[in-house]
Design a protein that fits this description.
CATH superfamily of chain A: Metal-sensitive repressor, helix protomer
CATH class of chain A: Mainly Alpha
CATH architecture of chain A: Up-down Bundle
Distance between the termini of chain A: 28 Å
Radius of gyration of chain A: 17 Å
Shape of chain A: elongated
Number of domains of chain A: 1
Largest interface: A-B, 32 and 37 residues
Oligomer: homotetramer
Chain lengths: 89, 89, 89, 89
């Protein structure tokens, strides 16, 4: 179920990112100002990076957590920390 | 002409990146293994970053080289934009 | 013990990085060519990022692994994957 | 003079970054909590990245603005260097 929740979020985000990437494509085709194109393209990259985090989070929950037998709070905290570190890269 | 060359390269690359992003989308939908999805998504991000470089290269050629004989204010604006792009990486 | 091994590696790496950062400092003071300074400074950043990975690896080993009860191979594989993903960011 | 202004800022920032890196070193030596060490180390990396921006800004001001009236080859070389710096981020 957690898995489903993360999957739904990731799929929604990727559809939005695809729309934004098509926007970059159109900006390129219509010769818009280069720095504007790059900034828009950067936004897509940031959106994809966010999807990485969602997928990693789901992975740690659904695959890794199964093998953990500490208290729920401890496990959640550990996962949160790993994702947080990952996010800052 | 340089501009055209960079534009053609950028457009070709973005079409390929769109295909790869659609692959990530499908991997998500079909519940493939999370780390594989992330690695594929990272490859798309690297491809988009490469497009940034192509667009910047084209920009420096076609806009900056021509306009750096403009007013001091224009020059400052252009330099500020380049630093801004650099900052977001 | 794993902890000690990672700590030793991280400490050694940070001493080397400190030496390289002092080199950047001197390059700045002695007005060396800007792109060379930036490339040297980038190398320091890459070295610090590598230290992050070593520390994360040690953390997953010494803190996280304690709470895992799967087979050793499974746990190692899982940790390797997380670190690998982290590395690519 | 612009150059001096950027140089002063970069040198000040690098001294501060060196102090913060020494803090990371001590955190490692005294076995502080790994995620805290990584977050502190990330802050140093962000500070070094900011220095890159300052140096690039100074470079664009003092070298590029002056030299873009040079030969085509010189211009190409300078543009190539800027794209190269961008690529490494």
């Amino acid at each position: 179920m957690h898995n489903n929740q993360f999957k739904t979020e990731a799929v929604n985000r990727i559809k939005i990112a695809q729309g934004h990437l098509e926007k970059v494509h159109k900006m390129l085709e219509s010769d818009e100002y280069c720095p504007d194109i790059i900034l828009q393209n950067r936004a897509v990259q940031a959106a994809l990076k966010k999807i990485d985090e969602v997928v990693l989070h789901g992975h740690l929950h659904s695959c890794v957590l199964k093998d953990l037998h500490g208290s729920k709070n401890e496990n959640e905290k550990m996962i949160g920390e790993i994702v947080e570190l990952f996010k800052k890269t």
